[in-house]
Amino acid sequence: MRVDFILKRFGIFLILIWVAATLNFIGPRLTGKDPIRTRLMKQAIVGGYVQQGMEQMAAEYERKFGLDKPLWEQYAAYLGDMSRLNFGPSISNYPRSVNEIMGDSLPWTIALLGTTTLIAFVLGSFLGAVLAWPRSPRFLQYLLPPLLTLSAIPYYLLGLVLLYVLAFRASVFPSFGGFAPGSLPAWSLPFFMDAVSHAILPALSIILASLGFWALGMRAMMVTIQGEDSMIFAEAKGLKDRTLFLRYAVRNALLPQATALALALGEVLSGAVLVEVVFGYPGIGSVLYNAIKDFDYYLIQGIVFTIVVSIGFATLVLDIIYPLLDPRILHRRA
Fold first, then answer.
1. Cα dihedral 13, 19, 24, 27 in deg (nearest 10)
2. According to DSSP H, which parts of 133-188 are helical?
3. How confident is the model at residue 1, as a pLDDT?
4. Cβ distance 162 to 204 under 8 Å?
5. Residue 267, SS3?
6. For 159, which of 5, 139, 188, 205 could close a Cys bridge (C-beta 3.0–4.6 Å)?
7. What totals of helices (H) and strands (E) does the chain contain, helices first?
8. pLDDT of residue 329
9. Is residue 69 a part of any domain in this protein?
10. Does some domain include residue 152?
């Protein structure tokens, strides 16, 4: 693999990050909303009166957050902060910083989405491979309609159904939050078991909804692989069914699945936003939802920028290592 190819891909990655960061800066400001005055007005409404001197307070907070400067100065300061991964203070949670808030919520999302993505990938790919294999038991074909149905159901809709059936009606699992109210996060077995019980419903909704996607993708690739010359030649050699299935069919069909898995893991930070909102899960999706609701510029910028970087980095790594996964692909000069 040539060094110039890696440098070229890294340059494209940096350009992608710059473009995404610029759009990330412009997007919230196109709404025309004033985050400072919106926050102060909410506090005044909660207090039951309109606070005197609100304009002076808004002007002071704008100066503190740098929102009183010309747009080009805000943009230059924004790029400098993004390059240092310093996302500044949160407007709606001041004086807490965006880095602190993201540091508290990211582990929850990474644990939930990372685990569910890998489980759904393994189970879905296995089911898809078995369904497409002509020597599989006939009764397995009855799994295809449920998988098609599950692949068409959004995470949050399936989450609402599970919430109603398993939390409200059967009371099997907790219905809200990441842990029991009143408890504090700690590295202990009781808290870990409590967190797992609260994560089961959102995890189950994500796994069931994405299981069909992985299974159908793997099934389509298995059907394609079985018509290739390598499979026909292997069958003509009289190889065992197990060898044909694992070393020839599954091994080649997994390559496109690996591409989708890398991108899915890159998108883990984005979280299943609506699933986290439905279950009140303390992940990055719930934080992003509240930030958009409160017009918290800095918190939105920090979360979106981190998501873009994670997806771009996953794509960069995949593009570099893909020839190692599939030696038939070589990076050559066009």
1. -150
2. 144-151, 155-162
3. 52
4. yes
5. coil
6. 205
7. 14, 0
8. 63
9. no
10. yes
CA 312 – CA 318 distance, rounded (Å): 10
How confident is the prediction for the chain on average, in pLDDT? 79
Top pLDDT among 204 and 66 is at: 204
Residue with tokens 């590295």: 187
Strand, helix or coil at 170?
coil
CATH number of the domain encompassing residue 187: 1.10.3720.10
Contact present, 158 and 208 (Cβ < 8 Å): yes
* Number of domains composing the chain: 1
CA-based nearest residue to 120, from 228, 208, 219, 61: 208
Per-residue confidence band for 71, with pLDDT thresholds at 50, 70 and 90: confident
What DSSP designation does 97 have? B
Give the model's confidence band at 333: pLDDT under 50 very low, under 70 low, under 90 confident, else very high: very low
For residue 214, give its domain range: 113-294
The alpha carbon torsion through 241, 243, 249, 252 (nearest 10 deg) reads 180
- Find out whether 154 and 209 touch, Cβ atoms under 8 Å: yes
Whether the Cβ atoms of residue 273 and residue 285 lie closer than 8 Å to each other = yes
Q: Give pTM, 2 decimals.
A: 0.78
Residue 315 maps to a domain: no
230-271 confidence digits (pLDDT tens): 777 877 877 787 788 878 788 878 877 877 887 777 666 665
Q: How far apart are CA 191 and CA 305, in angstroms?
A: 31
Torsion sign across C-alpha atoms 222, 225, 230, 232: positive
> What is the distance between the alpha carbons of residues 112 and 109, in angstroms, rounded to a whole number?
5
User: Which amino acid appears at position 316 of this protein?
Assistant: L
Helices 251-266 & 297-325, crossing angle to 10 degrees?
160
Maximum pairwise Cα distance, the chain: 88
- Rounded CA-CA distance 97/254 in Å is 42
DSSP state of 20: H
In a domain? residue 263: yes
- What is residue 268's DSSP assignment? G
